[in-house]
Structures are given as structure tokens and as C-alpha cells.
Amino acid sequence: MDGKEIFFSVSQLKIKTAQFILSEAGIASHVINKLDSAHAGLFGDIELYVDASNEEEARRILDEGGIL
């Protein structure tokens, strides 16, 4: 997968919601959690990636869903 970051947040709930919306639309995604566990989530973020071929549609879907 040639992944493109389409969204990031410090909220796991927002990331999981975005993943759910994308999966309902048939778009696979994956998450990279860069939160610093030593500082209770004060540093870093959680990144959501999709395949480059789905980037435009994924951004549109998340924008229409009020996530972006």
C-alpha cells in the first residue's frame, strides 16, 4: 500500500470514527500511533493513512462526514 496521510488527531475516538466511516465506504485504512506514552498523550498524534489511489475520495468522505 502506497499510504497517504489524510487525517491526524490526538483523539482515538476521532480516528476510530474516521476509520469506521471509511470502511463503510469500502476504503481500507491503517493507523500509526505516535503518541508519547511516557507523557500521557501530551506529545505526538495518531495518523490515519489510506492507499494513494483512495486519497481524494477518502478526504471527500471525511469532509462530508464532518471529520476533517
Question: What does this molecule look like?
Answer:
The chain is α+β, with helices and mostly antiparallel strands and 68 residues long. The chain has one domain: Alpha-Beta Plaits. It contains 2 helices and 3 strands, in the order βαββα. The protein has a 3-stranded antiparallel sheet with strand order 1-3-2, with helices on one face. The longest helix has 13 residues, at 12-24. The chain is globular and about 35 Å long. The model has no long low-confidence stretch (mean pLDDT 88).
User: Any guess at the CATH architecture?
Assistant: 2-Layer Sandwich
**Global geometry:** globular
Helix count from the secondary structure assignment = 2
The share of residues in helices is 25-40%
Give the structural class.
alpha+beta
What is the radius of gyration computed over CA atoms, rounded to a whole number of angstroms?
Answer: 12 Å
Largest sheet: 3 strands, antiparallel
Helices and strands in order, then pairings?
Blueprint (H helix, E strand, L loop, with lengths): L2 E7 L2 H13 L4 E5 L12 E6 L3 H10 L4
Antiparallel strand pairs: 1-3, 2-3
In short:
The chain contains 2 helices and 3 strands.
